[in-house]
Amino acid sequence: MSVHLGEVFGTAFRISWRNKKLWLWQMLPGLGFVFLLPAFFLYHSAFTDLAYETELQIPTDPWRQLIAIGNFLFIASFFLLWILAQTITVLGINEIENGQADISFIRILKKSLFYYWRVFCVYLTFLGVSAIPILISQLILFFIFKTLSTNNVYFAFPLSIVLIPILIANVCVSQLALVAIITNNLNFRAALKRGWHFLRTNGWNTILMFIILYFGCSSLFVLSFIPLQFASVFSILYIARLPDPNVVLFILFFIMLPFLAFIFLLTLGITMTIFQSAWTVLYVRISGMNDLYMTDNSTKEAI
After folding, report:
1. SS (H, E, C) 193-253
2. How far is CA 128 from CA 9, 88, 282, in A?
3. What is the pTM of this model?
4. Which terminus of the chain, N or C, has fewer Cβ atoms within 10 Å?
5. pLDDT digits (tens, 9 = 90+) for 100-119
6. In the chain, where are the structural domains located?
């Protein structure tokens, strides 16, 4: 059994382009970050030192502990909202594939809560499976460096050769399991087994798709930020000529940084929508081929 990747990518791009609200769903977890970004830098030690040098007096001492707690809560909530965004997006894509015309946010949000904790377990497993080999490799490198009294990075190359296939397989299984939970309403363990089975039976196509998605999304990020880098350099050169340093800091931290963060989130929303669309379409195609294969075998056995 093989899947035509050209058709998968074509369908994924078509879904992403025709349903731009999916971009917004992927952007939602980070939109709060855009508004909190100035406050994060405002109370950062490096910035406050600079602020005091420029006579911009900011009362930071009473707020440092509160800001630290707030940062932790924000990171935790961002992770939970990010998982919700993936669940909502895959559910919306799956309904589009099934011919559903109405993919209103409220309805999809309510429906996605039914799958949320199973998807959460998939991502938690993904993090654990990724962390274990990385931790082992770090311990091995630490032992080698201590024993041989060297910091030669060439020792890390053989470990990277082993780690890369493990991490790629982990991503593939996790993504297929995520779609399996939503498409077939499977439990956490059954979804992981289904993802592993699909990877084994369609390994080359799945890994090739991951590689194309990885380099494609990375290239899109780089290309989207090239013009922004030039614009930022010229803007900073112009802003730096302003006589009031407080105005300079205000423009940098409250206008330019949120704008760049918004562009980053928009690019992330587009790429992640394409990413999730491709995995959803791939899973649906593999599932259809498996069902057809089983039907054919049952027919032959009956004859």
Report:
1. HHHHHHHHHCHHHHHHHHHHHHHHHHHHHHHHHHHHHHHHHHHHHHHCCCCCHHHHHHHHH
2. 30, 23, 25
3. 0.79
4. C
5. 767 888 888 899 999 999 99
6. 5-302
